[in-house]
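Protein Entry — a single chain follows
Fields — amino acid sequence, structure tokens
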Amino acid sequence: MDKRNFAFDKMNYILLAIGMAVVVVGFILMSGSGSTEEAFNPDIFSARRIKVAPIVCFCGFAFMVYGIMHKPHTASDDKEQLN
């Protein structure tokens, strides 16, 4: 099978999986119980939910973009570097 026909190589998929895991961690950090009509829960405005979790999610999405844009390393790149 010719590997030149694939857009991504193994490293791209690994980077995408890491980025997706970071996004999932961000959403887990964002989760928690909410307020009801009977009781107000001040935890909905915690720094973890308002600041940290969205930053973690953004970093995960940015890492996924890097994983998509990462150019696969090929044997022809090695030959060009030697010349």
